[in-house]
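Case study.
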Amino acid sequence: MDHTKTQSPVAVIGNGPVGQTTALLLARWGVPVLLLDDRPERDLVGSKAICQQRDVLDIWASVGVGQQIATEGVSWRTARTFYHDQEVFSYTMPEVGSSPFPAFVNISQSRTEKLLDDQIAKQPLIDARWSHHVTGLTQDSSGVQLECQTPSGVKHLNASHAVVCAGSRGRDLRKTLGVTFEGRSFDDHFLICDIETDMPGWSNERRFYFDPAWNPGRQVLVHPCPDSTFRIDWQVPSDYDLEAEERSGALDERIRKIIGDKPYRIVWNSVYRFHARLTDRFRVGRVLLAGDCAHIVAPFGARGLNSGAADAENAAWKIAFVRHGWADEELLESYHDERRAAAIENLEITNATMDFLVPQDEAGWKKRRSILERAAHDESARAEVNSGRLCEPFWYTESALTTPNPTHPFAGRPARGQAPSAGPGVLLPDIPVSAKGQAPRRLHEYARDGWLFLVAPGADMAAVHAAAAGCGAPAKVLAIDAVDIRGSLAQALASRAGEVWLVRPDAYVAAVLDRPDAAALDAALQNARGRGRTKVGAATV
Ligand SMILES: Cc1cc2nc3c(=O)[nH]c(=O)nc-3n(C[C@H](O)[C@H](O)[C@H](O)COP(=O)(O)OP(=O)(O)OC[C@H]3O[C@@H](n4cnc5c(N)ncnc54)[C@H](O)[C@@H]3O)c2cc1C
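After joint prediction, the assembly is written out as follows.
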């Protein structure tokens, strides 16, 4: 794509996985990027995130790495839960829809970062600079000005916009921007070891142990990873000393209690304290905050990097549309509204998990014991066992960019592993379709090229084509009955005669309109571009 209107780059501050994803997505929209990081180079030692969700693989597929991550990762669908040494229940995640990606894959964050780096190296629009510690950030109506400490002295760089992906270490930048980062930190610590060993029976399932005899009163989580590696995560007291355990041989004993006397190699280990924090502003004028810099959650449920990648996609299409003149600057305010709402949901869910894993008082411990004791034989108690609710996409049903339709209401979160019914604010089902004379493509691939209009029989096709041609941005019109090669699209949408579905560039449905005329199509497009939104504390530049 070559739609660049202004030549100054967008600065992405932080070359972690969220910054990498943001940079690649912006470049995909034809936007030049300055990708800055204070580290001297990528240090691939260790790993944090392992568990990546289907819709994030889809985002990464749009920049050329999702399929490789999915292929290299271990896909698992069975989750087993134990209390003491007894299995109390297990569940297998159902396959949802026709996405080419598994529900989750496990792969080390360091491998994901390496694959994203390889893609960045091929992208001429990304200028990645290490050893650039951003120490100053100001902005005015012309753009953003950065001050960087580098080995060759202080450098001043200009950008049209900035996305701050500086992770949990972004405190000084948050301070410069005048935003808060309120929340709490959890007392207990977590010892995490990636261990290479041979445990074939464990290689495609996740195991969660509450109060095993070998970690009494606390829990242990075991996840399979590629190359016969297992992520073992022990909850440990706040005064836990990893070096002392390594020296005394207690770490070896700890590991042997799980894997027996098999040979093993520690690939990586570390001790973490988890936090739950959120910034009050995701947008300050021309600057957006994304990933761990904007929100940090405990990792049970894998909602950190997965939600950071969703931030990246939301930020990238909106900045690209503003820069290309396809939307006004006010579209950026919807980034704050939408992604802060997503972060609040993630915090609520992960905090509930932490409260179950680490009860704050004796009453909480008593309740937890009772639930776990009943879970082996009582279905309702199982539903209360909270070992982490796995990441799902956030639904923009309440967003001002979404035009609601009472005939396609949002029925709330579906049961674990099930897709919600399609409708305004929900991700479009990812179904392969075939436009006339073209090879089959997934609907999400079409959506990511601009606005997508899906038109049911009986709608005014000429009005839709006119709206697409006049919207001033890339747009594609597909007649549902013409492209529905498997006959599954109309069924997945539950679309009715005369309907027009307007889909955003991140594959979320913006509107479902019933026999719309030009004015109704225009109104839905205006909403989706942020022009119809009620301003909620809009930031000033
Ligand atoms: C033990 C553990 C397990 C986890 N498991 C999962 C999981 O299974 N799934 C999941 O989705 N998430 C998981 N997470 C969360 C995930 O690791 C983070 O959400 C993710 O690393 C955030 O990426 P980021 O790019 O926002 O920040 P980071 O990875 O922290 O990157 C920030 C970058 O910004 C740079 N930087 C900082 N300040 C500046 C500055 N002033 N100037 C220039 N550069 C700067 C830093 O050098 C760094 O490279 C886990 C986390 C932990 C700790």
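Observations recorded in class. The domain at 10-72+106-182+276-353 is CATH 3.50.50.60 (FAD/NAD(P)-binding domain). The first strand starts at residue 10 and ends at 13. We will return to this complex in the next lecture.
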